[in-house]
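Hi there, hope your week has been kind to you so far. Would you mind checking whether the tokens look sensible for this chain? I owe you a coffee for this, so here goes:
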Amino acid sequence: MPYQVPDPKIFACTQSTVLGNKIAEAYGADLGKVHFARYSDGEFQPSFEESIRGTRIFLIGSTNPSSENLMEMLLMLDAAKRASARHITAVIPYFGWARQDRKDKPRVPIAAKLVAKMLETAGATRIITMDLHADQIQGFFEKPVDHLFASTMFLPYLRDLNLNDLTIASPDMGGSKRAYAYSKAMESEVVICYKQRAKANVISHMELIGNVEGRHVVLVDDLIDTAGTLTRAADLMMERGAASVRAMASHGLFSKDAYEKIQNSKLEELIVTDSIALDPKSDKVKVLSCADLFADVMHRVHHNTSISSKFLM
């Protein structure tokens, strides 16, 4: 009798439980049970509450700071490996620590490479993630990486707005490739902001490359942290005569006073995904779920069918 490949099992780290439930529902499965035992000093121990021997499992969890989120993923990967799971796929909607992808000054780490190696050592046999801060991070892994794009959600939303005189914009030079991809898909113009930083999260100067007068501008970026760059770019574009400014960002970190900046800015709206658990504190923030995207790709991975259409910007 031929061997029947068992159905996969889906589990979620605590920071991604809400998204994990949405992904499992979209996949057509139940989210597996994981118990976390906690010691009084903060140490914790995850345990799978069902057998996973010989199965493919998907572990869902974004690794945004605090470092406890990354540690959860690592411990669950190790537990799955020691429980004899057949394939262990780390589904990381937001790959944290990715901004440290190179040595930009002496005596600093390349944290993204370190995190990649830790995930593989812990037991990940495949990585599924979305909108890495830098594409080259895929090369830090020896295991297969499926790098998805939030544009599969953002572009339909953008088309539904039916904006005339549309211009796609990048808030910095590093995002120019993304902006040009969106502009090609929308057959629109593109402008770029050039910025200089005094230090991390502090902008000393910003200038606009291109004309936005009378245009409906949509800023595209991979993540929103303090929202300083984004709101300053939006205000600059309105000063230069833009008819309206919106923004789309894959990952919403919203640290410090980000929501206040967004609410007080010239932005008409900001669209993000739920790759990180959010409780928006501004009526300008709209959240699109990435659950269907990840569920579809997980299904294709399990059944060994092509996912190339999900790589297209």
Observations:
- The radius of gyration is 20 Å.
- Residues 9-149+292-311 form a domain with the Rossmann fold fold (CATH 3.40.50.2020).
